[in-house]
Amino acid sequence: MRRLLMLIAAILTLTSPALAQDQATLVSDSLRITGDTRLIADGNVEVFFKGRRLKASRIVFDQATDRLEISGPIVLTEESGATLILASQAELAADLSEGILSSARLVLNQQLQLAANRMLRVSGRYTALQSVAASSCKVCEGDPTPLWEIRARRVVHDQVERQIYFDRAQFRVAGVPVFYIPRLRMPDPTLKRATGFLMPGIRTTSDLGTGIKLPYFIVIGKSADLTLTPYLTARKSQTLGLRYRQAFATGLVEASGWITRDRLLPGETRGYLRLQGAFALPRNFQLTFDGQTVTDPAYMLDYGLGNADRLDSRMEIKRTRRNEHIAARIISFQTLREDETDSSIPSLVADLTFHRRFSLGPLGGEGGLRLQTHNQYRSSSSPLDGPDSDGIPDGRDIGRISARIDWRRSFILPAGIEASVLGELTADAYTITDDAVYAGSTTRTHGAAGVELRWPWVKVGAGGATHVIEPVVQLLYASESADSIPNEDSALVEFDEGNLFALDRFPGSDAVERGARANIGIGWTRHDPAGWSMGVTLGRVIREADLGQFGPGSGLAGMRSDWLAAANFTLADGLALTGRLVLDDDLDLTKAEARLALNGPKTALSTSLIWAVADPLENRPEPTREITFDARRKVTPNWTANFSGRYDFVADRGTVAGMGLGFQNECVRLDVSLSRRFTSSTSVKPTTDFELSVDLVGFGSGVSAGPARTCRK
């Protein structure tokens, strides 16, 4: 029995010699001792130890030579399952730290397989393989050639450092040699972060020509890393990208950027910089920041970094609870638009908000209190409107302190009618400088109150579907006096089902909705047991007097607003359709919007249609009529196609268009994309962009395996 335990302990030290003194379990068809030194376990031999398993057909332990002879097939699985060794036979030292395995295969993380004629165990740490073929691709019996493989004369796997070293390596695609590398080091699949080159990417544009990106990843420590990405193009564009990440106990920071010298702007250094972070603060507060800047308006478009026309950098501290929201933020804007300058827009904005909801005790109902400060600064000091002709003085600076209190209480009347009493009161104090018209300090108070009647009718159909019809009438009174305050944060007004019954439809604080009015509407919803639902809303606003506070594009101008008609349709399989029309009494369109979204296992689609009349008050001198779409289709389990684009019906041309094709199986991911930007200006011109990226599964790329190859019988 003592010799048997010695044998078991010796076998288990293949993964860790220090485990030899632990107990294990051995199962075999027969077990015998010959002479005084040889122990033989024969037939379906299995050894179990702390989750590890060794399987073989025969094991012979010779105590005199302190050697193990193992006959296969041999299968050794580590506790985590990350390393698997297969062999036909082996001759090893008793502690398995030294020895030879024949016709061996090393499988790492159930992905990468290294097959060799001979495998050597060295010092219990290194596994050396001779005449190796390495791949994570599935091989079929009728087609033994993998999609890709690395052939090498010798490969060494360092189990401690989790690195794989290739000697005289040759990379092959479909059996065809592509390139030769004398020495190659790559992380094994169990290593998440390792210093070294990442897979390159190819990008071709009509402005820059063909270029290659070759990222190099540097591990700085357990909580920090740096990625350097040289990007060289055929038209002598030289770019270096960087990304630095660091994690802390309470948050993380990421800095990224690009610096370039090219022929597009000769003699100039171009670049982009972004700093992001998020931290958890005491008392459940959250700190987030996101800052970015660019040297010129065209840089981000030229190098595929995005198509934003304004960059905003912000820092925010906030906390949100069930009945409370506190936020403080600072925002800085940088414009990339041709008709704007940084000096004439609010380049620095600071806000502080406290919002609390509470019950009002004996008074009943629910109330809310909001306190807010707002400051915006322009670097220009001109009190007049400049060349941009946006109707706003280039130097106008504004400071505001606001307070708002609101209250609502509901009652149930006979016949199921729900009656509510509601109201709100706001007070604002403004300080305005560098403005020839509004300069000085001013205060404003505004109140609105009213009653609301809702009469929901509910019916359950024979098939179990639930129908709800709800007519709503809201009678409101608000003062008609207008204060001399410039409107900057409430210029874009939406009229939709979300604010049909709102006390104030202006999105900001600079403008308030004035005058007595009635909000009327009716809604119908249907909930089907099969999982789909549908809703329709129809309504309008009737005013006592036209105070000229809304533009023609809002749909709210005049004593009677336009008609609002909205509908939504949702299926259980992920299809959602929403549409909204704003029409005048002659059924002419003022504004229309439609959105279609589908998120299925094979097809994903997102498209939107916008139609709006011109409105100078909303800084829209021309009508807006455009459609956008983004579609993805899984053609086969391995192939995915995607399409995207935007079309401007006013200009009668496409704005952007793109298409892509992706392939992914158990060993490779391939992405190809082609896009075209049609618009042009003084800083950018139409360009075509082509990108290609390839990732090999099994070398620490972080890419998960896709559907495996299907073998034909």
Question: How would you explain this protein's 3D organization?
Answer:
- The two termini are 50 Å apart.
- This protein has two helices and 41 strands.
- Among the domains are: 2-197, Lipopolysaccharide (LPS) transport protein A like domain (lipopolysaccharide transport protein A fold, Sandwich), CATH 2.60.450.10; 469-622, no CATH class.
- The strands form two sheets. It has a 26-stranded antiparallel β-barrel. Strands 1, 2, 3, 4, 5, 6, 7, 8, 9, 10, 11 and 12 form a twelve-stranded antiparallel beta sheet that branches.
- It is elongated, with a radius of gyration of 35 Å.
- 2% of the residues lie in helices and 58% in strands.
- By secondary structure, it is mainly beta.
- The longest helix is centred in the N-terminal third of the chain and has 11 residues, at 2-12.
Give the key terms:
41 strands, twelve-stranded antiparallel beta sheet, 713 residues, disordered N terminus, 26-stranded antiparallel barrel, mainly beta, elongated
Q: Which structural category fits the helices and strands?
A: mainly beta
| Fraction in beta strands | over 45%
End-to-end span in angstroms?
A: 50 Å
Number of helices: 2
Under the CATH scheme, which architecture of the domain at 2-197 would be assigned?
Sandwich
Question: What's the layout of helices and strands?
Answer:
Elements: H1 2-12, E1 25-27, E2 30-34, E3 38-49, E4 52-62, E5 67-77, E6 83-93, E7 99-108, E8 112-122, E9 126-135, E10 148-158, E11 163-173, E12 176-187, E13 196-197, E14 201-205, E15 209-213, E16 216-221, E17 224-233, E18 238-247, E19 251-261, E20 269-280, E21 286-294, H2 299-302, E22 310-321, E23 324-335, E24 348-359, E25 366-377, E26 397-412, E27 418-433, E28 440-454, E29 457-460, E30 466-478, E31 517-527, E32 533-543, E33 563-570, E34 575-583, E35 589-599, E36 603-612, E37 624-634, E38 639-648, E39 653-664, E40 668-677, E41 687-696
Antiparallel strand pairs: 1-3, 2-3, 3-4, 4-5, 5-6, 6-7, 7-8, 8-9, 9-10, 10-11, 11-12, 13-16, 14-15, 14-41, 15-17, 16-17, 17-18, 18-19, 19-20, 20-21, 21-22, 22-23, 23-24, 24-25, 25-26, 26-27, 27-28, 28-30, 29-30, 30-31, 31-32, 32-33, 33-34, 34-35, 35-36, 36-37, 37-38, 38-39, 39-40, 40-41
